Amino acid sequence: MFQLTVQSHQRVELINITSQVQALISQQKINSGACLLFVPHTTAGITINENADPDVARDIMATLSRLVPQRGDYQHLEGNSDAHIKAVLTGSSVIVPISQGRLQLGTWQAIYFAEFDGPRRRQVLVSFLASLV
Fold first, then answer.
1. Alpha-carbon distance 41 to 124, whole Å?
2. Which domains does the chain have, with CATH numbers?
3. Does 119 sit behind a cis peptide bond, omega within 30 degrees of 0 on the bond before it?
4. Buried/exposed 60-84: b ≥16 CB within 10 Å, e otherwise
5. Mean pLDDT across 71-81
6. Is the pLDDT of residue 133 over 80?
């Protein structure tokens, strides 16, 4: 297992980590299989979405903030209940196929670390699953 470090700079932020993941695949000489990415935090998540237009990431975060506002009728005393809920909505893991040493993402796709309670220094755990074919 490997670990990537992600530094967020805002409370709510999508950070493209695709190049970091691809660099790790290249360093480890992984030719085929799959890459499992897991975020071991309860106020952050991981997702795959469009990278061509930065407005898409802005729209995603703005919509999540409208759906789950920072201030609400929450019982959790730390003041970050919205971050926990947003993390549930994005999820904590993704799996991406690898072929010929490259992530098999769609033309417009990128892997995003989703920060909901930053700024913080976070970790993404990375495992490689071997191809059986």
1. 9
2. 2-130 (2.60.120.460)
3. yes
4. bbeebeeebebeeebeeeeebbbbb
5. 90
6. no
